[in-house]
């Protein structure tokens, strides 16, 4: 009787055996995931210390060397004024990524709390919040962000706020769904039965177990927010022209796209790579935490 | 059933009303002096106080906010959102002018996006080769990751400037529609394909597929006969998101290809702070969204016999 | 096929030395089936018995060519009537499946296409396997015929219904009809009744056995329930860790099993015990006049359904149920799905509130207490859930899980004292310190349920309400947990309310039993009395449906048989 029998009967489930060697071992089996992390880390490096990645300054131009194609000297080529586009992309990472970070923080912070209140509060609180969320979901986030920016005024910071505000609703909805799902779990019922008060159960069980998919959404939202920030920059609602910003870089090159395509395409590709990488990371996070 | 209908319709109406109210607060109440927003920022300094007063009077800004709101709401109910600041024409007429052009673009892109989505999902499900499946699963996330302005420029560069197959700009004829449609369809197809790949995979693993295998069905037969319908239903649930993507995408697509349409008009309206026009567009978009979701809610039960049954007998409700 | 000499050479299905691996890493394979062999002859009823993880399902999936993509056949062969089909393509296997071998899947609730009518689904099975071209009317007739053969009397109506409009038993019959539609020579059934109520299970299994007689087909039944296998098979195969450890006719296995694991399975099967389990510490004596610790009176719970056109319908989950639990005893509540037994348990601990009636714990009325008073009551009244995989927070270690109630009530202050108390509790449920820092995901089902019990005991409650607490566990683990519960009861003088659908388990653990059906108490009394002389027809029906109850065997089992035969006569 007892434990060793238990072990004996414990099913050695096929396909559920633990992977070979922890987190690193799993990473080594997914080269694309590793590549994605490298890209994201490098771009974060651009944003934090641009001087380490390029010897050119973002505003140093030589009009004689305008519209040079990509070469060993100018990796992304140069723009109309002969400014190095790689350097402008590197310095632009700061503007774009800071805005993205702010946007995701706003959306994640407010959205999660709102969703938690709706899901945990239930009843009329839930109904009221969800109807408001409906309204925000009904207006496409780019459109909403454009309206918000037009009220706040044009600047990268306001773009960030606008993008963040326009994503609050989707975070709130996901968080609420998670909270509702977690609250029906036996272990939450058990926690009440074991004498836990509402606050205790909320803090110890409901919130930690609900956060996983919201974090996955946040990872995804980083990509979406980069796109939204760049799109608004492209449309001209962000930083004014001499400043390097990814969307603006593409917009500046756009006028000459027929003759000098790389001026638009290279910064655009850098942007696309970052977004693809964040998607890949988000997907792997979701897979790992799926229950 | 009637109750369900009334509830859904009520929600749709609420969304439209709330969108109107939200834009009213954002555009007419929050700005310190809404009159400022009515003028081109460059000319603002040259405007005399008399003119300002006249304008404020004309828009009713001197009245209490609540009265302004009620007056605007009353007009909006009759389809009157005032007139555009820039052109002076009625907002409704201005929107109606360019609406068909965007509708054609959006509808074409939607059909193309659905096609892409289903092809990817079917390829991922039907194949026995792991690399085809992996590729098909990776494509959608690539589709949503490439910014529309970049893919637009790439498409322009390749098919218009290099190959010269299609005109680069403008909105004359069907040929000019091809490139914008492709550009718009790609990002819209991403989420659709992602959802379909996932739901095809889930359904393909489900119990009734095992039953079909056991009946002696072949892989292709199972995908077509059993999986397709069950797996396609969830695509309806993201109709709203798809609509949002179409609108957002058309703003950029129409800008890149210099096409006339709601998207480009929205951008122009925001740039010139044409408040009545912006409000009209937002309310129109929200209303379309609400109608689309209402339609989805109503036809979903027709396609899923289980839901039909719940509606007929009612759902259990804890007392 | 009719030639008996030929038949002796080539059984309907012969699996030889089959080995199947699952992919667990990039180049890593874990064996699930190792060198298993079996055969089924014409007209033979063979059962494959094993606990979860034994590889029994993988084995039959391999035989049918239905393995998931992560699995591969490493060696061995599969032959149908002497034709080796190992390594056949999906296309070729499609001709074998349905035509030659029919398959009845495990869960009828997910195994039918929800958006297609039953008739159409059966017609497909007919059409795939129809010899020669036939027209739609003939297909339809054949499908109806198949539905009738599967025991659906109202085949015409079922034909036009969707799966969700049928009960679980009817769905399983429809699946049997699909399996039979191709006129197969052999039917493989993978746990066909484990999702069904015991009375329905009996009917379905009886029908399978009858089909074997009438159609002369071979049947391979996969089951975890040794009782089910003993009742109906000609031969039994026992599987463990991917290997077939024992094979033989039912009688030989019962009388003279050679294998230790089979012996343990036989002993663990609840239906094969006559009386209550005895605590390891020795026989206990419960005074016949023990005072009631928990009383429920006239409990009623209604759920409202919003009907069409504003009509409101009501479902009575509980309709005037009474219950009295005596101190230091186990009171079992038994019934099939929809009986209201879980609702009753949930009301007792106030997870759900009743619409009417009262619950008393000792002298205190629980109904209508506010949150704070309820919390006090819960120190004395604890609950153990059915599924140990969902009742433990996956992010908490065992130590934190068991300490949680201590912290919630601020009982034991100081880290060291708390750990000491937790270890003490773990020891009581036969776990130890080494488990303290493990997560639930790293424990087996039985270990998790032990943790759940340890947690429930942390507050020294007098009463434990256990809702199907052993139903999710394998039979040998189930036996251990039941023994543990009996031991704990003897040690701490606990009173149990034990909700279960399994009458065999009731016999093992309960002193009193309440039989429920449709929210109403059908019969209540001491287990001895109710089982020996059931007064209600439904109780009798339930008792008769218990599989594996009437097999001769050593010791106590004869007494069990005597019990049931008396039951039959009443």
UniProtKB/TrEMBL annotation, chain A:
Q: Name one GO cellular component term.
A: plasma membrane
Give TM segment ranges. 32-53, 97-120, 132-153, 159-175, 214-239, 259-281
* Domain ABC transmembrane type-1: from-to ranges: 93-282
Q: What are the BP-aspect GO terms?
A: transmembrane transport
- Membrane topology field: Multi-pass membrane protein
Localization, UniProt: Cell membrane
Residue ranges annotated as coiled coil are: none
Q: Which Pfam families match?
A: BPD_transp_1 (PF00528)
Keywords annotated in UniProt: Cell membrane, Membrane, Transmembrane, Transmembrane helix, Transport
Record family assignment: Belongs to the binding-protein-dependent transport system permease family.
What's the protein called, per UniProt? Peptide ABC transporter permease
Per the UniProt entry, what species is this protein from, by scientific name?
Streptomyces shenzhenensis
Q: Cite the source lineage.
A: Bacteria, Bacillati, Actinomycetota, Actinomycetes, Kitasatosporales
TrEMBL record, chain B:
Provide this UniProt record's keywords sorted from A to Z: Cell membrane, Membrane, Transmembrane, Transmembrane helix, Transport
Which one Pfam family would you cite for this protein? BPD_transp_1
Q: Which residues cross the membrane?
A: 12-30, 103-124, 144-165, 177-197, 235-257, 277-300
> Could you tell me where this protein is found in the cell?
Cell membrane
* BP-aspect Gene Ontology terms: transmembrane transport
Report the InterPro entries cross-referenced here. BPD_transp_1_N (IPR045621), MetI-like (IPR000515), MetI-like_sf (IPR035906)
All copies of the ABC transmembrane type-1 domain together span: 99-300
Q: How does it sit in the membrane?
A: Multi-pass membrane protein
Q: Which GO terms describe its cellular component?
A: plasma membrane
Can you tell me which family this protein belongs to? Belongs to the binding-protein-dependent transport system permease family.
Q: What is this protein called?
A: Peptide ABC transporter permease
Which species is the source of this protein? Streptomyces shenzhenensis
Q: What is the lineage of its organism?
A: Bacteria, Bacillati, Actinomycetota, Actinomycetes, Kitasatosporales
Automatic annotation (TrEMBL), chain C:
An example GO BP is: transmembrane transport
Which segments constitute the ABC transporter domain?
13-266, 294-543
- Which PROSITE patterns does this UniProt record tie to the protein? ABC_TRANSPORTER_1 (PS00211), ABC_TRANSPORTER_2 (PS50893)
Keywords on record: ATP-binding, Nucleotide-binding, Transport
- Molecular-function annotations in GO: ATP binding; ATP hydrolysis activity
Q: What InterPro entries is this protein classified in?
A: AAA+_ATPase, ABC_transp_ATP-bind, ABC_transporter-like_ATP-bd, ABC_transporter-like_CS, Oligopep_ABC_C, P-loop_NTPase
Name the CDD domains on file.
ABC_NikE_OppD_transporters (cd03257)
Domain of life per record: Bacteria
Q: Does the keyword Hydrolase apply?
A: no
Q: What's the family?
A: Belongs to the ABC transporter superfamily.
Name the UniProt record assigns to this protein: ABC transporter ATP-binding protein
What species was this sequence derived from?
Answer: Streptomyces shenzhenensis
């Amino acid at each position: 009787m007892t434990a060793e029998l238990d072990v004996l009967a414990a099913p050695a489930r096929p396909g559920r055996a633990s992977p070979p060697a922890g987190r690193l071992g799993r990473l080594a089996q997914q080269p694309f995931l590793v590549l994605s992390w490298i890209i994201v880390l490098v771009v974060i490096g651009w944003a934090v210390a641009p001087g380490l990645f390029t010897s050119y300054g973002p505003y140093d131009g030589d009009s004689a060397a305008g519209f040079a194609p990509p070469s060993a000297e100018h990796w992304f080529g140069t723009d109309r004024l002969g400014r190095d586009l790689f350097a402008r992309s590197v310095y632009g990472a700061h503007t774009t990524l800071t805005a993205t970070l702010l946007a995701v923080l706003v959306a994640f912070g407010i959205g999660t709390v709102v969703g938690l209140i709706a899901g945990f509060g239930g009843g009329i609180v839930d109904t009221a919040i969800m109807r408001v969320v409906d309204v925000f979901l009904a207006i496409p986030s780019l459109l909403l962000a454009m309206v918000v920016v037009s009220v706040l005024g044009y600047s990268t910071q306001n773009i960030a706020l606008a993008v963040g505000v326009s994503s609050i609703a989707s975070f709130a909805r996901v968080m609420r769904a998670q909270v509702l799902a977690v609250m029906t779990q036996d272990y939450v019922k058990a926690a009440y039965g074991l004498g836990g008060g509402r606050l205790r159960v909320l803090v110890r069980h409901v919130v930690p177990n609900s956060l996983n998919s919201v974090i996955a959404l946040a990872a995804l939202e980083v990509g979406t927010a980069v796109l939204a920030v760049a799109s608004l920059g492209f449309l001209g609602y962000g930083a004014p022209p001499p400043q390097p910003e990814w969307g603006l870089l593409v917009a500046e090159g756009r006028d000459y796209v027929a003759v000098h395509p790389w001026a638009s395409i290279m910064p655009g590709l850098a942007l696309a790579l970052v977004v693809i990488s964040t998607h890949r990371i988000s997907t792997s996070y979701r897979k790992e935490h799926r229950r | 059933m009637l109750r369900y209908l009334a509830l859904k319709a009520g929600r749709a109406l609420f969304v439209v009303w709330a969108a109107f109210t939200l834009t009213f607060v954002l555009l007419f109440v929050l700005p310190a002096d809404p009159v400022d927003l009515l003028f081109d920022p460059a000319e603002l300094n040259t405007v005399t106080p008399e003119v300002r007063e006249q304008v404020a009077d004309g828009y009713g800004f001197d009245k209490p906010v609540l009265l302004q709101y009620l007056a605007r709401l009353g007009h909006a109910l009759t389809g009157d959102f005032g007139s555009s600041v820039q052109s002076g024409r009625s907002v409704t007429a201005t929107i109606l002018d360019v609406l068909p052009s965007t509708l054609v673009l959006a509808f074409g892109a939607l059909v193309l996006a659905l096609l892409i989505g289903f092809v990817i999902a079917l390829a991922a499900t039907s194949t026995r080769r792991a690399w085809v499946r992996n590729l098909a699963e990776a494509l959608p996330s690539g589709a949503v990751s490439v910014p529309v302005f970049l893919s637009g420029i790439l498409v322009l560069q390749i098919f218009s400037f290099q190959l010269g197959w299609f005109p680069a700009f403008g909105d004359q004829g069907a040929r000019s529609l091809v490139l914008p449609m492709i550009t718009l369809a790609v990002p819209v197809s991403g989420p659709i394909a992602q959802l379909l790949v996932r739901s095809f995979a889930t359904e393909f693993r489900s119990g009734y597929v095992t039953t079909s295998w056991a009946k002696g069905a072949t892989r292709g037969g199972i995908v077509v006969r059993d999986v397709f319908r069950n797996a396609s239903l969830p695509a309806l649930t993201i109709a709203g998101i798809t609509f949002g993507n179409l609108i957002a995408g058309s703003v950029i697509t129409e800008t890149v290809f210099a096409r006339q349409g709601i998207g480009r008009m929205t951008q122009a309206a925001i740039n010139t702070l044409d408040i009545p026009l912006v409000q009209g567009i937002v309310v129109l978009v929200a209303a379309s969204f609400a109608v689309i979701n209402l339609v989805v809610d109503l036809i979903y039960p027709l396609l899923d016999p289980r839901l039909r049954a719940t509606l007929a007998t009612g759902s259990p409700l804890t007392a | 096929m009719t030639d008996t000499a030929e038949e002796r050479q080539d059984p309907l299905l012969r699996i030889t030395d089959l080995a199947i691996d699952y992919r667990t890493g990039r180049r890593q394979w874990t064996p699930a089936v190792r060198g298993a062999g079996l055969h089924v002859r014409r007209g033979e009823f063979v059962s494959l018995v094993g606990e979860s993880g034994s590889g029994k399902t993988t084995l039959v999936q391999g035989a049918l060519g239905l393995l998931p993509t992560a699995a591969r056949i490493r060696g061995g062969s599969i032959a149908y009537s002497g034709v080796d089909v190992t390594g056949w393509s999906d296309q070729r296997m499609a001709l074998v499946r349905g035509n030659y071998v029919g398959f009845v899947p495990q869960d009828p609730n997910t195994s039918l296409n929800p958006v297609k009518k039953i008739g159409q689904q059966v017609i497909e099975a007919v059409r795939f396997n129809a010899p020669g071209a036939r027209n739609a009317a003939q297909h339809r007739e054949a499908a109806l015929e198949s539905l009738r053969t599967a025991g659906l009397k109202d085949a015409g109506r079922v034909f036009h219904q969707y799966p969700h409009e049928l009960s679980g038993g009817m769905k399983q019959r429809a699946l049997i009809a699909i399996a039979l539609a191709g006129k197969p020579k052999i039917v493989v059934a993978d746990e066909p009744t484990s999702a069904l109520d015991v009375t329905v299970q009996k009917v379905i299994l009886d029908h399978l056995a009858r089909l074997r007689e009438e159609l002369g087909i071979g049947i391979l039944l996969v089951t975890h329930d040794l009782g089910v296998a003993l009742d109906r098979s000609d031969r039994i195969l026992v599987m463990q860790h991917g290997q077939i450890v024992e094979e033989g006719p039912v009688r030989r296995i019962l009388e003279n099993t050679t294998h230790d694991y089979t012996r343990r399975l036989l002993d663990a099967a609840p239906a094969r015990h006559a009386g209550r389990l005895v605590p390891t510490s020795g026989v206990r004596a419960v005074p016949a006049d023990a005072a009631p610790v928990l009383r429920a009176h006239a409990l009623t719970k209604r759920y409202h359904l919003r009907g069409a056109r504003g009509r409101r319908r009501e479902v009575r989950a509980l309709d005037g149920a009474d219950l009295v639990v005596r101190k230091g005893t186990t009171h079992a509540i038994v019934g099939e799905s929809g009986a209201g037994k879980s609702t009753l348990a949930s009301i007792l601990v106030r997870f759900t509130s009743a619409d009417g009636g009262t619950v008393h714990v000792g002298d205190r009325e629980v109904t209508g207490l506010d949150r704070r008073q309820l919390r006090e009551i819960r120190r004395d009244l604890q609950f153990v859930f059915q599924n140990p995989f969902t009742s433990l927070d996956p992010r908490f270690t065992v130590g934190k899980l068991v300490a949680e109630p201590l912290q919630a009530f601020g009982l034991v202050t100081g880290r060291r004292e708390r750990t000491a108390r937790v270890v003490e509790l773990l020891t009581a449920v036969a776990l130890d310190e080494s488990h303290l820092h493990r997560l639930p995901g790293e424990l087996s089902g039985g270990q998790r349920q032990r943790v759940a019990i340890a947690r429930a005991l942390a507050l020294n409650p007098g009463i434990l309400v256990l809702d199907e607490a052993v139903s999710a566990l394998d039979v040998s683990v189930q036996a251990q947990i039941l023994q543990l519960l009996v031991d704990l009861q003897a040690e701490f003088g606990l009173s149990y309310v034990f909700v279960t659908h399994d009458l065999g388990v009731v016999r093992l653990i309960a002193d009193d039993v309440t039989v429920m059906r449709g929210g109403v108490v059908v019969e209540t009394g001491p287990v001895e009395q109710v089982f020996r002389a059931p007064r209600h027809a439904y109780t009798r029906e339930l008792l008769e449906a218990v599989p594996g109850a009437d097999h001769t065997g050593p010791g106590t089992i004869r007494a069990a048989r005597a019990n049931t035969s008396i039951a039959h006569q009443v």
